[in-house]
Amino acid sequence: MELPVEEWRLYAARRWAALEPAVREQLAAASLHDTLRLGCGLLRPEAETADLGRLCRRAQAGKEPAAARFYREEGNRLFGRRRYGAAARLYSQVCLEDIARAESHGYPDRLLPKVLLRKAECLLCLGRFQEAAGALSVVENKIPTGGSVTTRETLLKKLSQLKIKIHEKESCPEPPREARDEIQRKSEIWEENDSISGASSSLTLNFDMERGRHLVASQDILPGQNLLKEEAFVSVLCPGEGFLLQDSSETVWDTRVTNADLYCHRCLRELLASVPCHGCSYAKYCSQNCADVAWEQYHRAECSLGALLLTLGVFCHVALRTVLLAGFAEVSRMVEGSHDDDKDLHNLEARCEHPSEAPATRNGTRGIPGCNDSGQYQSSYQAVFNLLPHTEKHSPEHKFLCMLSVVAICKELQEAGLEAVVLNQELSEKSPKPKILEKTGELSPELKIMAEAMLRHVLQLQCNAQAITVMQESGSGDGAVVNKKPVRLATAFFPVLSLLNHSCCPNISVSFSGTAATVRASQPIPSGQEIFHCYGPHRSRMRVTERQQLLSQYFFECRCQACCDELEPDVKSVVSLRNSFCCPSCWASVQGEDTLCCSNEACAVSVSRESLAHRLWDLQQQIKKALELLRDRKADQAIKMLLKCQVDARSFLSPEHLLMGEMEDHLAQVYATQGKWQDAARHLERSIEIVEKHHGPSSVEMGHELFKLAQILFNGFAVSEALSTIQRAEEILSVHCGPQSTQIQELQEMKTCLLELPRSILQRT
Fold first, then answer.
1. 488: alpha, beta or left, given left = phi > 0 and alpha = psi -120 to 50?
2. Residue 439 has pLDDT above 80, yes or no
3. How many Å apart are CA 286 and CA 603, to the nearest integer?
4. Phi-psi region of 650 (alpha: psi -120 to 50; beta: other; left: phi over 0)
5. For the chain, what is the largest distance between any 2 Cα atoms, rounded to a whole number of angstroms?
6. How far is it, in rounded angstroms, from Cα 206 to Cα 216?
């Protein structure tokens, strides 16, 4: 959820409507500094606090012993039903935390060895072998020499078994994450740009009044070539869509598993069992190191604000974390600089002696906003601050909502006594302590500076937020064929990546590893051509009218080649042509707007678009029911319903309609769960034909579909077909995702396995 919850948005709208017209006009025309100054004078602290307090009670983020007991009992119940994955996620809420608490609170020495053995088992399962070995060393010194002989022998036996397991695991370990990352870096050596941090030397930074800052190829670029590698300046994990664990009884505590339970809140690595924050129940980390670094950098200020930040949305959270990471001194410097040169920051044309003269032509890159005095554009807070907030283009109501939200956060920091925490990294012992204004409802001068920067960042995020995505398994995940789809994992600021302008037909692909983004050319880019990113609306997924409507949030009208072509009279989009209806009588194409007429003169049937749209909706509902049957492991019934849906679809949808391909894909999935690999491959190949027509033969969508087909052919022992499909998938995915991506590695493992088969088997296939 990017914006605040609906109730808070409605509250802000009522407060805005209650203002005098003259005050609304004043706020509408105000700068960020004046918006905050005027807005703070209009606030009613008691009303805002009461409303937010009520809303925050819905987002439980504090520690609750009763909740811990509930999660443990729920985990026990699920473990007993052999739902091990779900049980592990619930155990992880309390398991290692309980053991650490027992150790630190003087747990009896005679019972401690048993607890430490459990700790070692946990660490072993998590792959933390060194920590597990350390726990066993402590156990050896804790096992009593006296007492029950049986107890001592049981402990020693368990100790010996765990030592053997650790030795076996360490003898054939997987390469650690850091080692794999280092291998990837060495395999993709490139020459870095002198002026743009993280960018290839094949790019140059340009500026003009029409396109603003943008990147251009300074030499010919090949498909798959790395163009940019950038670590996010800041990122915040999105809770994401959760799913209710089956058989869970209704409770005040949430048993849904979301991204907040599955990924580290700092580095975004996938979790098996988390290292929880000691102060709140929301933040979870992949290691103690991540927890410690997060605490020092920002979480000690965020920890007690968990429920408030969940209520006010991810954009407010990103804004707060941005200023915490930058530090008060840097934030203050940039905010005060914006006051001194406010007109120049918001009107770049004023920086030129003539309107046609761009900063880059006068001073090189030093004249481009965001560049430092040496003309370098770095992934820094200065670059983040200089991303355009489009203050004058946001609606006054939206700016008022954002102002209320950031002030609420800063007031909570002040009232919780956290102002010194927000500022102390930048204040020396000789510096004056920030003046805390208690019970007046007024923010201190320092927090007003932080609030102004936060307001700027919240407005920037509408146009400059970058979604960090990850390929997540969809469906039950129980089959031999893994179906994955991209899911939004976090929202981040990437200052250099934000330089890329939008095109509905982009020439690059972006992939993510944790908090790092890698940009690769997805097609040949000749020297002098601009580098284009897709902000979401793509020509192969949406009609031009839908794309233009979605892109309006970025405050520009897209004039890319795809949009210009489709806006021409009598030109239909790729989506319109391929997701069209056909004549229910003779299956020829139909033409028209509200009334569709058969293009076959001998037929002359006409039908309303509304009636066909209703049939399409009914068909989609039937497909959903079929997928529910599949989830309930009723494969035969699912196949029967999907085949019936196909017959119905052929009577009014064009053969290339994307839904026709989706049904083929679903049938392939069902047959794969039954081990009917030939049937599964046949249906998936039909789906791939439609995907290729919609997205193109070299698209990332084709790569994902070929990856699924490779799995089916591999499991069906179709060796030669599998090897050729693996090669095609590798060629496409290496361009879009890089040679070290998870899918490429899985494809290479399948290829190795197939090539190591006996020659007699290879010859037969």
1. beta
2. no
3. 65
4. alpha
5. 100
6. 7
- Under DSSP, is residue 555 helix (H, G, I), strand (E, B) or coil? coil
Alpha helices in 522-582 (DSSP H): 544-551, 561-566, 574-578
From residue 168, how far is each of 154, 171, 172, 336, 404 by CA, in Å?
Answer: 21, 5, 7, 60, 58
Supply the pLDDT for residue 759.
Answer: 66
The H-assigned helical ranges of 342-395 are 342-346, 359-363, 381-385
Q: Could you give the C-alpha distances from 210 to 67, 348, 356, 467, 614, in angstroms and in order?
A: 56, 11, 10, 26, 43
* Least confident span in 118-122, 582-586, 651-655, 759-763: 759-763
The span from the first CA to the last CA of the chain, in angstroms, equals 51
CA-wise closest residue to 722 among 690, 693, 749: 749
In this predicted model, what pLDDT tens digit does every residue of 620-652 receive, in sequence order? 999 999 999 988 889 999 999 999 999 999 999
- Identify which of 56, 62, 117, 126 has the alpha carbon closest to the alpha carbon of residue 91: 126
Token digits of residue 391: 């203050």
pLDDT greater at residue 650 or residue 55: 650
Question: What pLDDT is stored for residue 594 in this prediction?
Answer: 84
Partners of residue 257 on adjacent β-strands: 243
Of 483, 493, 482, 526, which is closest to residue 507 (Cα–Cα)? Answer: 526
| Distance between CA atoms of residues 365 and 348, nearest Å | 14
752: pLDDT strictly greater than 50: yes
Alpha-carbon separation of residue 359 from 206, 248, 389 (angstroms):
9, 61, 20
Contact 558/551 with Cβ under 8 angstroms?
A: yes
Q: Which residues pair with 348 in a beta bridge?
A: none
The one-letter amino acid code at 310 reads L
Q: Given pLDDT bands bounded at 50, 70 and 90, which one contains residue 764?
A: low
> For residue 694, what pLDDT band results from cuts at 50, 70 and 90?
confident
Question: For residue 527, which phi and psi values (nearest 5 degrees)?
Answer: -55, 135
Taking alpha carbons only, the member of 610, 574, 333, 615 closest to residue 450 is 333
CA distance 484 to 502: 26
Name the token pair of 708: 């699924």
Q: How far apart are CA 701 and CA 689, in angstroms?
A: 12
Query: Do 1 and 314 contact (CB within 8 A), yes or no?
Result: yes
Token pair for 81: 């039903």
* Per-residue pLDDT at 333 exceeds 70: yes
Long-range contacts of 740-749 (CB under 8 A, 24+ apart): 740/180, 740/183, 740/184, 740/187, 740/188, 741/511, 742/471, 743/471, 743/484, 743/703, 743/704, 743/707, 746/707, 747/707, 747/710
CA distance 40 to 22: 17
- Name the one residue in this structure whose structure tokens are 């290692």: 96
Comparing 308 with 241, which gets the higher pLDDT?
308
**Which pairing describes strands 501-502 and 532-533: parallel, antiparallel, or unpaired?**
parallel
Per the model's pLDDT, the better-predicted residue between 72 and 640 turns out to be 640
Q: For residue 19, what are the CA distances in angstroms to 7, 16, 28, 47?
A: 19, 5, 12, 15
Helix (H) or strand (E) holding 215: strand 212-217
DSSP code at position 200: B
The set of residues, in sequence order, having a beta carbon less than 8 Å from that of 524 and lying 6+ positions away, is 220, 221, 222, 223
Question: Residue 188's pLDDT band (boundaries 50, 70, 90)?
Answer: low
Q: What is the mean pLDDT of the chain?
A: 81
Half-sphere exposure of 606 (CA within 13 A, CB side): 7
Structure confidence by residue, pLDDT tens digits, 476-524: 444 556 667 788 899 999 999 999 999 999 999 999 999 999 999 999 9
